[in-house]
Amino acid sequence: MTLSHCIALSLILCGIGLFGMLTRRNLLGILLSVEVILNGANINFAAFAHFKAADPVAGAIFPIFVMAVSACEIAVALAIILSMYRRKKRLDVYRLEELNG
Amino acid sequence: MTDILFYTMAALLVMLSFFAVSLPNLLHSATALIGSFIITAVLYIMLQIEILALAQIMLYIGGIVVFMLLIILLTTGLGGVDDKLGKITIGKWISKGAITALLFTGLLYFFTENSSRLLDTGASKTASVTIDQIGVRLLSLENGFIVPFEVVSLLLLAALVGAVVIARKDTEKKEDLS
User: Fold this and answer.
1) Is A92 helix (H, G, I), strand (E, B) or coil?
2) Which residue of B has its CA nearest to A36?
3) Closest C-alpha among B106, B13, B61 to residue A17
């Protein structure tokens, strides 16, 4: 178990999450893939804090902030998804054409 | 011994994460996500940062995945099955897999080319972080994280209020602007 193993693991997790973000059509599935990516980033922070850093406490604090921001994101996403579901009765991102993005 | 445990956990983590992004039933994917978060907590314990394992289990499994399960059950009926939405054609699967593989190989190439700069072996020592250190550092004024801490608390409040405002039902006025 070395630093490069952890970096490889988080790289694989980032790839999996990106694949999920591209292939999912459901809004919730996309959010779930974002969580996978954030998980890989947190593993990277923790691995560098453990193996490398002159200041390991700072590397351990950053994932906590990531978790807090992720909780905020999920709370707002819950509200958006609920109001969207009430309005459209579906969560397929390919059919949300109102924004024309 | 540690290596075998790490490889087992990493293989399980990759497998469960792939299940989480690829299973058609969202309830199954959320369950796979719970498993992957638990294994990530095990990895944090192996990296000797126990507070991250605790926060992972409390925040991610106890908070975020429960939120997700709540959304899934609220929006797709009690079964959570939406195979009509989850279905994608094999061509899209292949093309997006190709995009992901391209990015993956690019990052891998970058890391292996610059590995001497990223992973210089000087001053390599393993460190453990205790919860006391985290708490003191988080709230200390000099060289600490007091400002991000307060900003995150403000952000949580704003997200809470914003979520309530967005999800509110319009009861008194029956306007339909769309």
Assistant:
1) strand
2) B17
3) B13
Please tell me which of the candidates A43, A51, A75 has its beta carbon nearest to residue B67. Answer: A75
Q: Is B99's CB within 8 Å of A24's CB?
A: no
Report CA Rg, chain B: 22
Token pair, residue B120, equals: 């210089």
pLDDT digits (tens, 9 = 90+) for A15-57: 999 999 888 878 888 889 999 999 999 999 998 888 877 788 8
At residue B43, does pLDDT exceed 90?
yes
At A26, phi and psi to the nearest 5? -85, 140
Among B13, B52, B73, B161, the strongest candidate for a mutation testing the A interface, having the largest count of A CBs within 10 A, is: B52
Among partner residues A78, A85, A90, which is closest to B163 by beta-carbon distance? A78
Which residues partner with A92 through β-bridges? Answer: A26
The shortest C-alpha distance from B172 to chain A (Å) reads: 17
Question: CB–CB of A35/A71 below 8 Å?
Answer: no
Q: Per this entry, what is the length of chain B?
A: 178
What would the 3-class secondary structure string for A16-31 be?
HHHHHHHHCCEHHHHH
Using the 8-state DSSP alphabet, how is residue B64 labeled? I
Rounded Cα distance, B88 and A79, in Å:
26
pTM for this structure? 0.84
Please report the ipTM that was assigned to this predicted complex.
Answer: 0.88
Distance from the Cα of B158 to chain A's closest Cα (Å) equals 9
A9/B156 Cβ within 8 A: no
Identify the pLDDT of residue B18: 92
Q: Which residues of A51-80 are buried (b: 16+ CB within 10 A; e: fewer)?
A: bbbeebbbbbbbbbbbbbebbbbbbbbbbb
Best CA proximity match to A18, nearest among B16, B97, B94: B97
